[in-house]
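Task: complex structure prediction.
Instruction: return structure tokens for all chains below.
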Amino acid sequence: MPTFDGGHCFLTALVPIETADVVDRGGWKSSHVQMVREALAVLPTAHQSAVTETLACNSPFAKCTKTHFSRLVVLDDVIYNGRMPTSALLDQSDRTIPQAIDHLPCPYLIFTADFDAPEGTDAELRAWLENVWTKMSVDLEPVFRHCFEFGRKVQSARDFADYILACQVETTMPFNDYWHEPPPLPSLSMPTLIGVGVGSWLVTGAVFYAVLSALGWAVAFGLSWAFVGQVLLMAVLAAGPALYILYRLIMARGLKRFPMAPNSDLPSVLKALYLQRQLIPFVVRMQGESDQALYDAFGAFLGTVQVDNVSAPTQSPGVIG
Amino acid sequence: MTQDLDLADIQGNILQDFVSGYPVARFVLLHVTEPEKGRAFVLEYRKKVTTALRWASSGAYAQKIQTTKPDVAINIAFTYTGLQALGLPTRMLARLPPEFMDGMKMRAPILGDDEGANAGDDGGLMKWDPVWGERAHILIGLNGLLDDQGHAEPALQRETDALLALCQQYGLTVLSGHAGSDNRWQDAHARLAKNKATYKPVPMEHFGFIDGISNPVFEGQFGDPHADAAMAIGNGKVMAKTQDGDNDSRWAPLATGEFLLGHPDEAQETEDAAPPPAIMRNGTFLVYRKLHENVGSFNAYFAKAAAIYAKANNVPVEDASRILKAKMAGRWETAYRWRSRPPSPSGTPSTPNMPARTSTGLMSISPIATMPTAPNVRSRRICAAPTRATA
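Output:
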């Protein structure tokens, strides 16, 4: 299940936004979806450049040391992309009759997140959700309060996890970007594929033959056209199940999770970003220096940045680039 | 799934006709000098804008009642230069339609408003009110109620004063140069009919034809597929014949995107919108146009022509006048189309003021016989009203 992949959880939740009533804002009224938009507009994003690092506010998700990315988006409706294309020559149907257009029953708040889940278990997802609510309910409540029955259903971190899990949809294409070399996922070898294919073909054919024999319809072994025809028929009939078994084998391999990439948890990624940001100015600073000066300075640099120490010094969560 | 509209995000004058509920109107044009202050003004004034949320007595609308009817319905619209003056990003402005960018003045020749302008007489653009000589950025429409003496209720003036005060606070200029008693705004009202000692608005335009008969119905407008379908009869689009031959069931509401941006339209497309999508979604394009109807010339022409027609066809002059008007307009003074009741061979319609019912189902429009007669109609020669326009 690709919701968990590569030691990460890729959460996707579609949270319905309330439409049964409107919000009285003291003499004027707005829809809940408008309130969600306004709440999102003032929700701080992460510090995305060195200039923004001096700002006092930061993304609430910076309070969580497992979250790599998170995004909150309002989805008003499904995009209608025009009529289903058909051939004007072959399809003589009346183009003046409009095709049906799908609509969502209500606007949705899309909540996606990518966070560390090395074991790939549902318990990790629940723990992350509960942690999110515990640490940032003050920030997120103005957004989620306009979702369907949120106020009635969510009183605690546990309730928040229950609520989001009820809105979860399977993530079918996670963005796994931490492998910089081919992951250790050996492909199915050709001998294995041939062995499984031929083996299942023979076994299935034998089963068919046994069934025919049991029914008394089998032609006895011998050099007759009837027997040859029977063998050919068995071979063709057995090819279908054999191909299906191969297909399931390949798909089962495809569903295997990516293993976790080395150093791809958030603390390691933050450390990597920290090293990158320290190294570049160092390189610029040392242009034209003598070999000895460079050697000495780099030694001092390694001592300062402590490459192997993931916890410190490092980049703060919520600082990108 | 049917179209469910976010009524609180749609201005009230798009989904319903304010002229019938608010017979008096006032239009104010504003000019923004400082983008920041202009935006602050919009943020503040949006609280007063009347949305499409339903209030009681909103006719056929099936949506839940979520607000109360305001004393003054207020709406706001922006010109292209207005959006520029508010400091909107070029990325958004560049994706607006060229027709909107040009504005009415550039496109006046299409309307024939430049006729005679080059000849040096007072034709065409010369007849536009002087207010259009300046850069109009924001149009505010105030729609008010009338008392039984035909005067605007005081709430209209209160809202006008509040608007003026807000403009002063945020440094917006109220453009002057409208025609009328106060050149800071354009006043307008529906035609009024005197009934004993009181005045009531009547749905008639100044040439004597019933007005407001062509407000189209679009999907989602009435908040319920059945209500939409019922209201679409005569006001929607005609679909292919049904097997049961029921003419009413051939009517269907128009596509929402014909009137509201960000929704699929009759071409089965969702029009390209300026980014971000939310800025145009549920908005529309509004035409503000002031017409001068030459009622005197119109009546004088028909008095003369009707006399000739009556003599030639041996019909009463009154009938001749109605027949000629119907021929010219394509419909009788009622909502019925001209061909719905062809004249008898002698040229005399059997009941010219009560044409037969048509398949358009417009029987809800009162026939001319119940309309007040001309002497009781008090009218102004100039009437301005916002007209809904498609994107």
